[in-house]
């Protein structure tokens, strides 16, 4: 357990000002206006008093201890005043000032300087280039955001100060409160992990992040707390252009988004992708219990709206709940099927009757109430009744569609803490996120495993395997040669076709005669050759010696013609075509070892049917991973095909995981295709990239 | 040209009432309160006057002509009063009353009765089971919606009355107006087509539809008007469950959504999928010019929000505009790249300066302005400046993120007719729809062709082809036998492998020896056999006579074992594997002949990579169709593959179109796979379903 976040009883504002146009004034004003109960020490070289409070010229002049200093002076002066804070042993310093990493190289140097100043001291730093910090529980507004939110045990950690300002405005207008608002700024010292680890007693956290500073730690914190405390994350930078915008914004290069999303979800973070979703989802998590499963009832006085809502509901992976005959009897006046159309002339009493019947149904896990303003509609009374439904302990969301007429109802629902939105699709988006998180929590069987140090194969094989690596290293290679790959996969029990590297055509002929047999396959292997079939470097289904010799000469010519460096020709048993899969692994700089599974072969890119997970994984979770691909139904025997043995696929993924775990020298492994049929499995093409090789990111994994 | 919609100078309300709780009162009240300038005749058996207006007991009693009758009496009485309306020669009757098709069989009969009553008369009927009609230009509110919208040449046609009520409330709250609001109800007589054809002078139309009554006419109207007048359509029933909800709602079974969407977009309808998108998109189309292309500038005082907006922008197929060096100079104070971060302390003047510079850029086709409420932010002044930017003639949308603080700004933007939303993703969704429509209009080269009566092949071949059909018919078949298919495809120049149906094994051996050659393929052909490869009914790559005989016996055994009716065994030349495509066509009951192209073979369902179009199509549009598939880059030579000759694929699609056009007896054609490589194209498996066969919907097309 780490100690509670901060205990601030005194604040110094360095760069405080009398001029209402300066941030140094706004910060002091915010402290005063929010009625901070501790001491305020404005530090100013010019003013005697600010807002009636005595000033000091340096923090060191202040006669008492200071728990927090807020710095709002020009960037060039920041190092000097920060040094004074360190001398004064101030535990937390917020640097509001901009002019650091976000401005380029010179700024980055200055930021580095700040880190050097606090190194080894008891002072921690938030920012620079941030909006500050609000702690509503202590009535502490140490920021230049002009908001004084009510208290509620919800925190918002934001890498964008401006989005924080919008959030605070939105929070207040929506009858919500917060505990901490933390503007991370450039994250020179304190980052999202620092706060996520310490805010474990809040009931809900929202994050806006442009990068994740330490991905592995971020996931570990998720593993520790996310089952008890939902964390909603909006991770910017899904697109390449957005990544550029981030670079020019905070000077940090964003990682690949699909990987980040998969990793975060694996560890229970609720990932949203728009600002609206972040805000809307937070409201529902703050006010409503979680659904126990994914079956929803819709009650609406507008049939059309219910139909469109159902479309969205199905798309989001939710389902319409079934109603018992008993309830259908109660509903006779309305339509008896879900979505339930209470009809355009429904008074509030009819809504009430139907909601009560529906919420008592076992199959109903959550309720969406839709209302449109018709002549008879009792908007406010209906809103009040909806508020009363909370007693059933199931999540209830509402959509009141319209303008001025329904706005009163929406406000009333807000006051009763029923998340209500203009449009049903918004409510369903939110409900889908709640349902996803609830199901994550329920998968208690799936405890994320702690990484074992070495695999069961390590003891017996590591000497030999390390020898293979040393040989490759001695040759200056950045991929393992084919013969070594073959040995490695044999030692780790990955089913691969018999395969021999041949120096000349007669050797190939002998190999086939003695062992491989016809039909066979000839292919070029070379460190630089990634897309073999694209250039005709693989000749399959060779039926006799004449064809073999011809194929061999053809590949030799190809090697000469294309000047393929370090090329060899390899003969292999021909494997009957089956389902083509891809299995791979790579070391991601931020999240560690990533496992990958999906549709392989020439369709890899076309299908984009690939699922990623952070290692290590239990076999059960590997099964889930496989089931998330689009090829899964075919593997399971769809369309009259024979099912393949999924456990044998998992064996391969597990072996790849073991290799990554046992040998740091492996940067990535790429098996594509892994051919599987009802009674065979065969890793036809395996590439192992060594760690010295630069730029072997996950992108390599979908090449073949 | 059809005449203007209605010219209503007098209205009778049948079932008028003094009781404020009755619809018959509300309707009279709405007419009076909206200040209808014509005569109002309440028809009531009980009251003498209603709201001070003299009543009559029957319409026939009214001494003057009546232009419009609104019926709000119990369903059982509707036929009787409708008959009186017909006698009185009232041109338009609105039946508000429910209790017709939407309630089941008995109601459907009653609805049929209404149609019989008006048959051959001059009376047209709107409804039954509807909310009525509003014509804001004539201050006519002949509905029970309690809204009196301002006039604007925008109409809303809705198959849900309740959604109409919500729409009207939203319209007023958003400073918009309307021309017609039309509640279609059960569409017994007048439907969407009737109104779409007549509302050609409005500048914008929105539709909510649960079914499209006459798809081909709907498309023709689109072809005629959609380039001049945008029509935004929300078509409910995307999901199966939603289709059920519709059935219970208006008693009409919805058609397949992907087909509907493709057909509507082909003819220029702007398809949206949520209620929010319908409302938000309408606002932007009403107020803003269209973008000339897809390049957008974003100006924001919140870097984070700009980054998230860029993510959405890219996902929607929009692009960030490039800025000239000149403009970058102007922007020096802000960040110089798009998205442009004017920084958190931006005053309205900085917004103004940047917006002006950006809007003068040639590469900027539209502008999104994002604002968050920070300490220095001048929300209202910035909103006013944004309003002033309309002079540049480019579409401008805004997103003011926050709560109470920004709401004033949003209201001001509404007043200045700048579509403004809380969240940038909403604005970008709308901008994507505008960009799509603008590009549709610009494709002037793509004039939808008028169907020629017969293809160029018809004259020479129709006698022989019809003979093939007669033979199949005589045998009672519902697919064309293989030999006939072979002849048909030869006559229409579809490249297919040489293929012979054999009665016994020796015949197969002779065929191969004399003509086909080794390797060859043997397969079972039978009318009931759709998924040949799934049951092992295709044996490929047969290399010699021994293998051929063995394969033949194997298929014979399979036919016996599976009791495949009317089966024959067919021998074919073996075609080297290439890209597997699917080409098909079917007659849809609603939209006519549909052409289909996509990825074929065993991956057809897995990929779901299929594009549909309504025939006839110009070759240029077939090319567009092909380019919309995910396999297109591979066909064009991605990844070192040789490009295939796309024109030869178009030849095949064209031939399929010709066949559908020339022979009504064909219900659908299914070529899967069509094998293509750099220098060959071959329709390996062709099935032709005959029209007598029931239930051959488009679903068959993705089977193989």
From TrEMBL, chains A, B:
Pfam families per UniProt: ATP-grasp_5, CoA_binding_2, Ligase_CoA_2, Succ_CoA_lig
InterPro entries xrefs: Acyl-CoA_Synth/Transferase, ATP-grasp, ATP_grasp_subdomain_1, CoA-bd, Ligase_CoA_dom, NAD(P)-bd_dom_sf, Succ_CoA_lig_flav_dom, Succinyl-CoA_synth-like
PROSITE patterns, per database record: ATP_GRASP
Keyword line: ATP-binding, Ligase, Nucleotide-binding
ATP-grasp domain residues: 486-697
Descriptive protein name: Acyl-CoA synthetase
Species whose genome carries this gene: Dictyobacter formicarum
């Amino acid at each position: 357990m780490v100690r509670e976040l901060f205990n601030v009883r005194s604040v110094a504002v360095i760069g405080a000002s009398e001029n209402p146009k300066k941030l140094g004034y706004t910060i002091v004003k915010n402290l005063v206006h929010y009625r901070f109960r501790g001491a305020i020490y404005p530090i100013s070289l010019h003013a005697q008093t600010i807002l009636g409070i005595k000033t000091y010229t340096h923090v060191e002049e202040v006669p008492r201890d200071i728990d927090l200093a807020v710095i709002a002076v020009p960037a060039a002066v920041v190092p000097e005043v920060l040094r004074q804070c360190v001398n004064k042993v101030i535990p937390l310093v917020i640097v509001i000032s901009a002019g650091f990493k976000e401005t380029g190289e010179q700024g980055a140097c200055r930021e580095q300087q700040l880190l050097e100043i606090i190194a080894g001291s008891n002072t921690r730093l938030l920012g620079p280039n941030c909006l500050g910090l609000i702690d509503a529980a202590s009535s502490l507004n140490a920021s230049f955001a002009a908001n004084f939110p009510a208290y509620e045990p919800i925190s918002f950690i934001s890498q964008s100060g401006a989005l924080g300002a919008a959030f605070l405005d939105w929070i207040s207008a929506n009858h919500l409160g917060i505990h901490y608002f933390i503007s991370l700024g450039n994250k020179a010292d304190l980052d999202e992990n620092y706060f996520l680890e310490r805010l474990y007693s809040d009931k809900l956290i929202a994050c806006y992040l442009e990068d994740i500073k330490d991905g592995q730690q971020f996931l570990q914190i998720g593993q520790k707390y996310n089952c008890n405390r939902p964390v909603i994350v909006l991770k910017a930078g899904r697109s390449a252009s957005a990544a550029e915008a981030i670079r020019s914004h905070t000077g940090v290069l964003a990682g690949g988004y699909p990987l980040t999303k998969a990793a975060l979800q694996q560890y229970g973070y609720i990932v949203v992708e728009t600002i609206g979703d972040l805000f809307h989802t937070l409201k529902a998590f703050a006010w409503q219990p979680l659904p126990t499963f994914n079956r929803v009832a819709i009650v609406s006085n507008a049939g059309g709206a219910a139909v469109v809502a159902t479309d969205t509901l199905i798309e989001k992976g939710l389902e319409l709940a079934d109603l018992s005959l008993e309830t259908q009897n109660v509903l006779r006046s309305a339509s008896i099927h879900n979505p339930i159309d209470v009809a355009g002339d429904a008074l509030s009493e009819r809504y009430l009757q139907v909601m009560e019947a529906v919420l008592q149904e076992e199959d109903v896990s959550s309720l969406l109430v839709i209302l449109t303003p018709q002549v008879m509609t009792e908007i406010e009374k209906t809103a009040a009744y909806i508020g009363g439904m909370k007693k059933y302990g199931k999540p209830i969301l509402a959509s009141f569609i319209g303008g001025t007429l329904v706005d009163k109802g929406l406000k009333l629902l807000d006051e009763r803490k029923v998340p209500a939105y203009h449009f049903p699709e918004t409510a369903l988006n939110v409900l889908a996120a709640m349902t996803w998180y609830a199901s994550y929590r329920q998968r208690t069987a799936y405890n994320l495993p702690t990484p074992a140090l070495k695999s069961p194969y390590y003891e017996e094989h590591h000497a030999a395997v390390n020898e293979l690596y040393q040989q490759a290293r001695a040759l200056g290679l950045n991929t393992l040669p084919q013969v070594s790959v073959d040995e490695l996969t044999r030692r780790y029990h990955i089913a691969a076709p018999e395969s021999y590297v041949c120096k000349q055509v007669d050797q190939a002929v002998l190999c086939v005669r003695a062992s491989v047999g016809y039909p066979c396959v000839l292919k070029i292997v070379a460190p630089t050759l990634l897309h073999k079939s694209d250039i005709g470097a693989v000749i399959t289904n060779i039926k006799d010696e004449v064809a073999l010799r011809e194929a061999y000469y053809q590949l030799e010519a190809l090697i000469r013609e294309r000047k393929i460096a370090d090329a060899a020709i390899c003969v292999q048993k021909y494997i009957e075509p089956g389902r083509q899969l891809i299995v791979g692994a790579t070391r991601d700089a931020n999240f560690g070892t990533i496992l990958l599974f999906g549709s392989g072969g020439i369709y890899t890119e076309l299908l984009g049917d690939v699922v990623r997970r952070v290692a290590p994984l239990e076999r059960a979770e590997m099964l889930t991973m496989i089931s998330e691909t689009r090829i899964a139904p075919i593997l399971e025997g769809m369309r009259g095909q024979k099912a393949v043995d999924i456990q044998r696929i998992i064996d391969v993924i597990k072996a790849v995981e073991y290799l990554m775990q046992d040998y740091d020298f492996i940067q990535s492994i790429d098996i594509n295709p892994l051919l599987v049929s009802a009674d065979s499995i065969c890793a036809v093409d395996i590439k192992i990239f060594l760690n010295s090789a630069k730029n072997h990111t996950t992108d390599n994994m979908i090449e073949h």
